[in-house]
Specification:
Shape: globular
Number of strands: 8
Mean pLDDT: 95
CATH architecture of the largest domain: Alpha Horseshoe
Order of helices and strands: HHHHHHHHHHHHHHHHEEEEEEEE
Number of helices: 16
Largest sheet: 5 strands, mixed
CATH superfamily of the largest domain: ARM repeat domains
Number of domains: 2
Structural class: alpha+beta
CATH class of the largest domain: Mainly Alpha
Strand content: 15-25%
Low-confidence stretches: none
Strand order of the largest sheet: 2-8-7-4-5
Length: about 350
């Protein structure tokens, strides 16, 4: 199993940070900083709590004057490789730089630091407390020459950013985000385009009609925009939204036949795989999107469906294709399995084309 991301913040990485700070600011007490940060509470702290512990403790050992403290960090960050550890620098700004008097210093620092470790989390309290001013800044960043800064403009205002402070207002009304997404909808950087797509996907979960309208307006004019729209509509595609399916050519105009949908053994044990197979064919050329859904039994005994994509293919006239698939029932960090009757449903172009039950045993 891969090492937990929180373990990026360890004695080695903290020691490197302490040495880089001390090299540009001699009064910095490196060992004392390390001991104060990695105290008796450290092992029990999760990812964001470790970041906050580091940036809070840094504030006690850097100059009390905020501007002078940033000047130290500006020197210490030079030469660092970009990586997740770099969010410590932007978190320092979030913790110590939200006073109105520090606005210009903080915005400049967030812009500089985002290339070393994204400032996407740190900008969110600024949006909440100074929405119009900060969103104007985000729009300006969307036009920046640096791709890291342009990505920050989109990623920082995602309504549902994982691990990020909730932007409740934008979950309810995402319209203030749209000028930024419009500016970035044909961005040359894949790094930026992925963020724009993820932002659209966030919006689609609460405002599907808005994203459908944007998709229809933007699709077909630029290959970069087309990719953003397709990736940004992934939740709508999984939900079988007819407008979005039709936009990408997966409509029901051409009938696709499904035959021989069979499931392996009618029971499977935790940690094992289940197998299923089916054949698709069409009398006419067609585009086909193939998915399957697993109705998982939850801890409370109810069931919840998860959709998995198989493929998106063009199928020729009178062509027949056989698919044989396996699905694992090993526990993951993101999914725990529970015993009971599950279902596997085959989905073709957003429409259910057969469902089979099976038992999961522990």
């Amino acid at each position: 199993m891969p090492d937990l991301l929180k373990n990026t913040f360890n004695r080695g990485s903290l020691g490197e940070l302490a040495r880089s700070v001390q090299s540009v600011y001699k009064p910095f007490k490196a060992e004392e900083f390390l001991e104060s940060t990695m105290d008796e509470t450290w092992d029990g702290l999760e990812l964001k709590a470790r970041v906050r512990k580091i940036s809070t403790t840094l504030g006690r050992y850097l100059p009390a004057d905020y501007g002078k403290a940033l000047a130290v960090l500006d020197k210490a960050i030079v030469g660092r490789s970009p990586g997740f550890f770099g969010i410590v620098f932007s978190d320092f700004v979030e913790v110590h730089g939200q006073d109105e008097a520090h606005w210009d210093l903080s915005i400049g620092a967030l812009e500089r630091y985002t290339a070393y470790g994204s400032s996407e989390f740190a900008v969110r309290p600024f949006i909440i407390s100074h929405e119009k001013r900060m969103m104007a800044q985000m729009l300006a960043w969307s036009k920046h020459e640096n791709e890291h800064v342009r990505r920050l403009a989109s990623e920082g205002c995602r309504p549902r950013l994982p691990w990020g402070q909730a932007l409740v207002k934008y979950k309810k009304d995402p319209k203030p985000i749209l000028p930024i997404l419009k500016q970035l909808k044909a961005d040359p950087s894949p790094y930026v385009r992925k963020s724009v797509a993820n932002n659209l996907n966030d919006i689609a979960k609460t405002h599907p009609d808005l994203v459908v309208k944007l998709a229809k307006d933007w699709y077909g004019k630029n290959e970069h925009t087309n990719w953003i729209i397709k990736h940004g509509c992934r939740t709508l595609l999984k939900k079988g939204n007819r407008d979005v399916l039709a936009l990408f050519g997966y409509g029901n105009e051409t009938p696709v036949d499904v035959d021989g949908f069979t499931l392996g053994p009618s029971s499977v044990s935790l940690g094992d795989d289940i197998t299923f197979s089916f054949t698709v064919s069409s009398k006419e050329a067609a585009k086909v999107r193939l998915e399957y859904g697993i109705d998982y039994v939850k801890a409370n005994g109810k069931r919840n469906r998860k959709i998995f994509q198989i493929s998106e293919i063009p199928i020729k006239e009178n062509e027949k294709r056989l698919y044989e698939k396996t699905h694992s029932f090993a526990d993951l960090s993101t999914r725990k399995h529970y015993p009971g009757t599950h279902s596997l449903t085959l989905i073709v172009n957003g429409a259910e084309r057969g469902s089979l039950d099976f038992e999961l045993n522990l």
